[in-house]
Specification:
two-stranded parallel sheet, alpha/beta, 19 helices, 14% strand
Length: 633
């Protein structure tokens, strides 16, 4: 056999194997069904046989076309064997989880499922409002319809409409960002999204429970993305500790925060622009009216949220509509209670202008001019609104980028949260809040920051105070410039709002402020990295991502989760008294967490560091907080 022939065969098989590996990697990342793998394997085997027997001796053009046909056929297989659309099961690790007894709520009877270890009952996909579709798009949430028979609540309802990425993109993000990607046959499907998403989910301790404290959680996602079934903030662990946990989906993006004068005119209360926030209030009202059926105490509700969920929580703390629906608050990594919130908030004039730009982008009406919505007659407003309601949700969903902000709508909020707090009007009776050391890292990951351009990129947010701020973070290299930018960005967009929130309330109610610094193999102290610790959901054993955490992480989680558990029970992370023993967690005393603003301290001077060591520290960004105080008066 000629050497050239051997070399040709070798090149062919190497190329075929490499091509096959690429396609099989795509099938895995895209979560295609098993049939796709079988068809792809058959395709490559058939191609190898045909090529060697029929095509290898043909001309270059024929061989090239045959390879192109292979690529095209592989792409078709990938497209045609994508996973079907399904609802996410409440207990995905068990094929047929055991069912609970029947629970009666205001709209009818429901039945949930038990977790695999049968310690927690889950009731998922319970409607708390009518589907906001058709004429109910951009209206205040309405009471849900009653149903006949027993509703089996064993799957999460669809996620709210939101911009989405391909499964391949999401898988790569899981690999590169979270480092906890898992190969499994249990996720070979695509999750459903829908405007019909106003459903609530409940975790409760198994068995007979009465007067248990309640935790209601609002998920994050910049008010334009997110869903309520993510493992990091699952309610399972708190439920094992005797807490009834609730979360919900709410309208996002343009569906939740679009503002239009025509909508205000048709509303009996004159509101527009805060539909997502009104959904959250409706969910809290449902909890008040129904949670006792699950063993929860409607008079002992702690409201919690992270990121945009925490921003929503801070708005709910100010809203007169939410008064009496909760008492204590746990807030992670955001607030809109500052004088000029840097994200998740806008005034009504801006909301209406953004609404005009939204309509114009969709070919309905004129864009805003000079930051103001155009003047329109009443009839024109009504016609344009009718046109907006006729558009399919899939066309509207792309408008999330300019419609994901809470506003002063005159209904949920008659003035800004900062003004409510200034006037001493807020709903929480105790506050547990804080932020992470490296909040900004994922948001500035691809920003090109150098020693030379650092000042210019900070001037839009710091103005004349840029120089003073940079004196706090000396820079002598591009690497130090990037680090300084990340720190200042973290403070400006996240940390300062918690410093302000603490200062607004510490003299009136118990406030406890944390600073999360724990490193690990996953997110570390990045934005949202603290959630898996606080909710006690660090993976162990054979769970995906378990290798990314150490015994020290489990110890940190035990302390942080115990603080939160104590706070939910008593309003004090230390328990009934400082250094209390927690026999139901591990029987070990907690490091004392001092209340903010006590013993002569001011906000920022005594925060509880949650890291490799749990200790009281002064926030390292306190001087920048004070500069921002001057900037915003």
């Amino acid at each position: 056999m000629k050497k050239s022939s051997v070399a040709g065969k070798l090149i062919f098989y190497v190329a075929l194997i490499l091509t096959g590996l690429v396609f099989f990697a795509v099938l895995e990342l895209n979560k295609n069904i098993p049939a796709g793998w079988s068809i792809m394997l058959l395709l490559f085997v058939v191609f190898a046989v045909l090529y060697r027997r029929k095509l290898s001796g043909r001309g270059k053009l024929i061989r090239t076309i045959s390879w192109l046909c292979l690529f095209a056929s592989g792409a078709v297989v990938v497209l045609l064997t994508q996973g079907p659309y399904r609802l996410v099961p409440a207990v995905p690790e068990v094929d047929e989880p055991k069912q609970t007894g029947i629970v009666h709520v205001a709209q009818g009877d429901i039945r949930g499922v038990l977790t695999g270890d049968e310690t927690v009952e889950m009731y998922t996909g319970i409607p708390y409002a009518k589907p906001p579709v058709g004429d109910l798009r951009w209206k205040e949430p309405q009471d849900p319809e009653p149903w006949e028979g027993v509703k089996v609540c064993d799957h999460f309802a669809p996620m709210s409409m939101q911009p989405s990425n391909s499964r391949i993109y999401d898988s790569l993000a899981q690999i590169i960002g979270y480092h906890d990607y898992e190969m499994t046959l249990r996720d070979d499907y695509r999750t459903i999204m829908s405007e019909d998403s106003l459903y609530i989910n409940i975790w409760k301790p198994a068995g007979d429970v009465r007067k248990a404290p309640v935790l209601v959680y609002v998920h994050g996602g910049s008010l334009k993305t997110g869903q309520p079934w993510y493992d990091d903030y699952s309610g399972r662990t708190f439920a094992k500790d005797g807490v009834v946990v609730v979360n919900m989906a709410y309208r996002l993006g343009v569906f939740g925060y679009y503002a239009d004068e025509a909508l205000a005119e048709e509303s009996s209360t004159g509101t527009t622009g805060n539909y997502g926030l009104l959904d959250q209030i409706k969910a809290l009202e449902w909890v008040r009216d129904n949670i006792e059926a699950f063993g929860g105490n409607p008079e002992d509700v702690t409201l919690a949220g992270e990121s945009a969920g925490s921003a929503s929580v801070s708005a709910l703390c100010a809203s007169p509509m939410a008064k009496g629906l909760f008492t204590k608050v746990i807030a992670e990594s955001s607030s809109v209670s500052t004088k000029e919130p840097p994200h998740s908030f806008r005034l009504m004039e801006q909301a209406l202008a953004d609404g005009a730009d939204t309509r114009a982008a969709l070919g309905i009406g004129e864009a805003a001019a000079d930051g103001k919505a155009p003047d329109r007659s009443g009839e024109q407003r009504r016609q344009e609104l009718a046109g907006m309601r006729e558009l399919p949700a899939e066309k509207l969903v792309g408008m999330a980028e300019i419609n994901h902000h809470i506003t002063v709508d005159g209904r949920a909020l008659a003035k800004t949260p900062w003004e409510y707090y200034r006037d001493g009007q807020f709903n929480e009776t105790a506050l547990f809040n804080g932020y992470n050391r490296d909040e900004a890292a994922p948001f500035v990951l691809f920003d090109r920051i150098t020693e030379k351009n650092l000042s210019s990129v900070l001037e839009p947010i710091l103005g004349d105070y840029t120089g003073r701020a940079l004196e706090l973070y000396p820079v002598h290299s591009d690497r130090e410039a990037t680090e300084a930018y990340e720190k200042i960005f973290s403070v400006f967009y996240f940390g300062y709002s918690h410093y302000t929130w603490t200062r607004q309330t510490a003299e009136k109610i118990p406030v406890y402020e944390y600073w999360f610094t724990k490193e690990n193999g996953r997110l570390g102290a990045w934005h949202s990295g603290e959630e898996v610790y606080l909710y006690g959901n660090i993976p162990v054993g054979k769970q995906a991502g378990a290798s990314l955490y150490t015994d020290e992480d489990l110890e940190t989680s035990e302390v942080f989760h115990s603080y939160a558990l104590n706070f939910i029970r008593t309003g004090d992370p230390n328990g009934e008294s400082s250094g209390s023993i927690l026999p139901d967690r591990r029987g070990k005393a907690l490091p004392v967490w001092k209340r903010s603003g006590t013993e002569g301290n001011v906000p920022g001077e005594n925060v509880q560091e949650i890291g490799g060591e749990i200790r009281e520290v002064q926030d390292e960004n306190l001087e920048l907080f004070r500069i921002l105080d001057e900037l915003y008066g």
